[in-house]
Amino acid sequence: MLTRLTPASLWSFLVVAAFAASADAQGRASNLRFEITYPAERSRTPLDGRLLVFISADTSSEPRFQISDAPGTQQVFGIDVENWKPGETRTVDATAFGYPLRSLAEVPRATYRVQAMINRYETFHRSDGHTVKLPPDKGEGQQYARKPGNLYARPRSLVIDPARGDVVRLALDQEIPAVDDFAKQETKYVKYVKIRSERLSKFWGRDTYLAAWVLLPWEFDEHPGARYPLMLNHGHFPSGVDGWRETPPDSALKPDYSERFHLAGYNRIQQEYAYQFFKDWTGKGFPRALLVEVQHATPFYDDSYAVNSANNGPYGDAIQYELIPEIERRYRGIGQGWARFTFGGSTGGWEALAVQMFYPDEYNGAWVACPDPIDFRAYTVIDIYSDSNAYYDAGPFKRVPRPAHRDYLGHISTTVEQANHRELALGTHTRSGDQWDVWESVYSPVGADGYPKPIWNKLTGVIDHSVAAYWRDNFDLSYIMKRDWKTLGPKLKGKLRIYVGDMDNYYLNDAVYLVHDFLRTANPPADAVVEYGDRDEHCWNGDHMRANAYSRLRYPQMVMPWAVERMLMTAPSGADIRSWRY
Q1: What is the pLDDT of residues 103-147, one digit of tens each?
Q2: What is the DSSP string of 58-116?
Q3: What residues does each domain of the chain span?
Q4: What are the backbone angles phi and psi of residue 41, rounded to the nearest 5°?
Q5: Dihedral of CA 403/405/406/411: which sign?
Q6: Is CATH 3.40.50.300 the right assignment for the domain spanning 182-375+477-570?
Q7: Measured between alpha carbons, how far is 92 from 495 in angstroms, rounded to an integer?
Q8: Short-list 330, 324, 244, 334, CA closest to 288
Q9: Closest CA relative to residue 379, chosen from 282, 502, 472
Q10: Which of 410, 356, 369, 376 is nearest to 532 (CA)?
Q11: SS3 state at 209
Q12: Which pTM does this prediction carry?
């Protein structure tokens, strides 16, 4: 019986066949290999994890810090290791998956700096019955190159020549130290709260904690009778209060250069704006509220996306019903939905909208800037429901790569395939700790092996539409909004403000357009605000007066006055709207 091949399935077949042939040829073509060991004093127990070998032509920093989606990325190869004992050799050769070059056999002959490291995994016995091996966060915000306890070798310079078949021996004799105690950063205004979450500990089968930075309002101690609103600033793992500085800028700071914003001395600009935030916060007329930033890194990413999910557990409920009440108890929060507000950009933008939607009575507004895809018909540049392949738009004789990152002029720096293959080199089973994998860890059901069920084949890009249907029903915010608008709409009326640049680097504006189409005609009316920044890149937040490089440094000054205005307009009868307004 003959099977008719569609253009997408034909291309998938060709991609797999080509890769298999290439890998086989490369494996035969080169005997170059890295033989890696680690000494017994570095670990008393055998290691599980992702063993990585880096090859770099860039001498500006260690190779382990030089893997990115940018054209200037250096090279990495990775293999999974289990039960690796001290003194045993593990080999990385031409069969190891690499990025951006697939195989060691493709590396041009030259002098490079090489380095090896292992991203260590631990075993989790989850309450859903699955046992998985994952890299737990160690206080660094899920960054493999900086994760405490990870072992690495010092960089070495040597000639790499795949044609010679050399053996390069490396020993992981260095260990990344623990991070400093966050509580040491506490000041009169900055407080650090850490709690054991009963919900998360039950899910993960071990003690699991949530933490948060709390910025206390000016004259908190001088007004013991005051109770305060709470502003929840969502975003990536915060190692301190974002954009906060209690001392003047360092005049001796050597100016750097921001490639992203094409600005010299951007580090100095950041310090100036951080100190200005301190002066605004302690000045007359600034809103008096608790400003909260949550640490909720998971074994998959630097944060959980603040929702309940099958692979990460009940982070949404843990934050909402364990952490937030404890903060409000300690620091005299009002503790009612009318007096809570949420905001954030990018990951934090998606979270702000999701939290407002999934806990509609617990928050009185969401300032949503440059959100991660809020409509999966525009999952960046992919429609996961109608497209067959995430990496290419294919016809019978042509396939066009899908872009993943652009600048404000539309210049492309990486493709969806390249970005995903970088993650695949860094970790299998959704364990890279990076963007595409975290979306999968949050949105996907649990696979039969206990790991997130892939939305697409990581190698070929072929989409699994059964997984897409699960994503739609549980995490496509646009779909859920429309599906549930009869009951959800009245709870969201007037609460949503969404902002995005129309040249967002990650094409996040495309999903906002689709949501905007619904909100402008929603019945009952949404009374939402949706605005676009002309030629603005990621992460434009609604400031039409300043360039993106500057406006991103002053979120609280933009958001909090509007939040207070809305709270005062909508506070229930008898609510405390006076004690905190001094």
Answers
A1: 999 999 999 999 999 999 999 999 999 999 999 999 999 999 999
A2: --SS-GGG---SSTT--EEEEEEEEEEPTT--EEE-TTSEEESSSSGGGSPSEEEEEEE
A3: 32-175, 182-375+477-570, 377-474
A4: -70, -10
A5: negative
A6: no
A7: 53
A8: 334
A9: 472
A10: 369
A11: strand
A12: 0.93
